Amino acid sequence: MSFNLDTYKREAKAVIVDDIDFDDFRDQPLSPEALRCLHYMTDVETHTVCYLRDLLVTPSHQNPRITTFLTMWNFEEFWHGDVIDRVLAVHDEINGLPRHESVRVNQGFSGNVLAPITQCLAAAVIGEDFIATHMTWGAVNEWSAHAAYGRLIELEQHATLTKILQRIQQQESRHLAFYMTEARERLERSRRAQRITRFALKRFWAPVGSTITTKAETQFILRYLFQGGAGSRMVRMLDQKVDKLPGQEGLSLVSKSVAKFGVSVA
Ligand SMILES: [Fe+2]
Ligand SMILES: [Fe+2]
């Protein structure tokens, strides 16, 4: 598998919604549960620039292929948040810059100062193999985001929301393709990278967004989207995808992580 970075950098763009009539949501508003999920989702999407800050202090920033991708990735994720904010705005829900600012301020000293410093130091000690961990982490997060949008589409059955979220999903798939390609290649060529990545995932990986919001909100979205039936099947599928990465088999990563938030995948 290869990823054509030149093509991607030429084609990266804001998710297209010119043809979407946002007033559809006035005629057929979303459920309170869907709106709560969308708040969580836009918080994550618009926090991408902060995740990028923490990654640019690691060896990943020395690799121009990686930084080219991250530049476009950050741009596209920004627009994912922006379009979700437009949906929230139609419902008169809090959204936009004041909301994003409050999420950032709420990270406090730990999230805003200690996180980039500790990540910088840990990654410097690990060196080049850190990039394999970063790429694997990114792949798991993109899989999770794609799955979460898919579950919301299934649960809400709202034609306009479906159109918007499917377009976001298309871009998440492309992000995933980059992360997956890089992760697989880097893990395949380094046993040390496999061990470090396995340790990092097992010890530190948590559902996307859980580190920037309250436990109650994470519990809500995980239970709403992934508890039981089709949700559980999705979680097991995510586990299987992680298992297929070199040196990462048998982690049950996602099911163990969601269990910490009270979601069982029986
Ligand atoms: Fe996104
Ligand atoms: Fe993405």
From TrEMBL:
Domain of life: Bacteria
InterPro entries: Ferritin-like_SF, RNR-like
Full protein name: Ferritin-like domain-containing protein
